[in-house]
Design brief:
Length: 124
């Protein structure tokens, strides 16, 4: 199994920035895809960003050009740099990992194998 632990969430004013981190442990594999989805109460989950083993990324249209997904393989850590934050970005953000799928659609559909516990981001 893979364990994922997120950190870096918090409260920020609109226009501000935050960087989320996700540390992976256990049966980690550099070929795993890693990504983020978010959940707003009362709404369906939204795939935010995913990065494959080659470093190729894909993003939800709602965050494109504002969020950057990156990973440090040596540290088994995934990052989500969020800039120009908007109130509608307020959500619980979850890290995810999977060996076979790697798209924001797969994140939205819940097709990844491993998930973290989430970190709250609040933008006011």
């Amino acid at each position: 199994d893979v364990q994922l632990v997120e950190s870096g969430g918090g409260s920020v004013q609109a226009g501000g920035s935050l960087r989320l981190s996700c540390v992976a442990s256990g049966d980690t594999d550099p070929t795993h895809c890693m990504g983020w989805y978010r959940r707003i109460p009362g709404k369906e989950r939204e795939g935010v960003a995913a990065i494959d083993s080659n470093g190729s990324t894909n993003y939800a249209d709602s965050v494109k050009d504002r969020f950057t997904n990156s990973k440090d393989i040596a540290k088994n850590t995934l990052y989500l740099q969020m800039t120009s934050l908007k109130p509608e970005d307020t959500a619980m953000y979850y890290c995810a990992s999977d060996l076979n799928v790697c798209s924001v659609a797969d994140l939205a559909g819940g097709y990844f194998a491993y998930y973290g516990q989430g970190t709250q981001v609040t933008v006011s």
